[in-house]
């Protein structure tokens, strides 16, 4: 099990992953928010060997730029990212959508003679690519309204307690302050009569073999923060800069459309939900800022939790040049 901090990883480095010699490599660059994934991906792109694919559940949406940390137009022109700006915020995007899109983009990049470099912090998307997906029921607006009504009446902790009754394992994994995942786990149970944990378990043996059946070799690399306190400070500084850059005005433009609501996955994104609540008068400005920073820190904590259990993960520590060398060595190992 990999460490989740560079300080401890440096003292007990995990064994370096190696690519399968009979399959072309696909690089997966993971890590918590605000840790520097984009900068490393851009540096790797400079080598001329890679094409970039975004693995971000919010950057897929057009018009959601500042709050998602999306590279600006000039940066995207220099470092093109696939799977950015491919959906309207009113059109939900799922892990299944990502897997289909990613497989298509990977094949296109490989046909062009480049190495796909998937970069982002949506760990569920990386898992969907590696393991495939269980056969889950589609979203149901009526069931979602029922869950949201319970949350409005009793609070999300009560919804979490409800989930614990029907799917204790999922309730252990999902934080009480993660409404989107709570809602989905309960929705699956209410629609199918079976818990998400059971459904994932039914597909477990096949899922464990799915990465072996992929026509490429997945190499997982993660940038880890040197210190949790430093990461928390970076998150606060970055969010305040987003506000100065016009984050509230970005969400105001979405709010004025009239066809978006807090029930959509796009508006549930960290920061967007809190500013939406501010615009609707449920939070004051300071409360919005505080809750957004807390929510972002909770997101980073969940991302680190995912990484702690990730198999065959290489932790990237030290200077950027060292991380670049590690990833290039993995790519070159396919030729040996």
Features:
six-stranded parallel β-sheet, globular, 9% strand, alpha/beta, 336 residues
Question: Any low-confidence stretches, pLDDT <50, length ≥5?
Answer: 7-15, 203-209
Main beta-sheet annotation: 6 strands, parallel
Quantity of strands, as a count: 6
- Spatial ordering of strands, largest sheet: 3-2-4-1-5-6
Q: What portion of residues is helical?
A: 40-55%
Q: Tell me the number of helical segments per DSSP (H or I, 4 or more residues long).
A: 16
Backbone structural class: alpha/beta
Q: How far is the N terminus from the C terminus?
A: 27 Å
Question: What value does the average pLDDT take?
Answer: 89
- Alpha carbon gyration radius: 20 Å
Strand content: 5-15%
Describe the structure.
There is one protein chain. This protein is α/β, with parallel strands linked by helices and 336 residues long. The chain contains 16 helices and 6 strands. It has helices at 6-11, 37-45, 73-78, 95-111, 123-131, 141-154, 156-166, 168-173, 179-192, 196-202, 204-213, 228-244, 247-257, 272-279, 285-308, 320-332, and strands spanning 25-30, 50-54, 81-82, 115-119, 217-223, 313-316. Helix 4 crosses helix 5 and helix 7 packs across helix 9 (179-192). The longest helix has 24 residues, at 285-308. The chain starts with 5 loop residues before the first helix and ends with a helix.
Brief rundown of the structure:
The chain is about 55% helix and about 10% strand. The protein contains 16 helices and 6 strands.
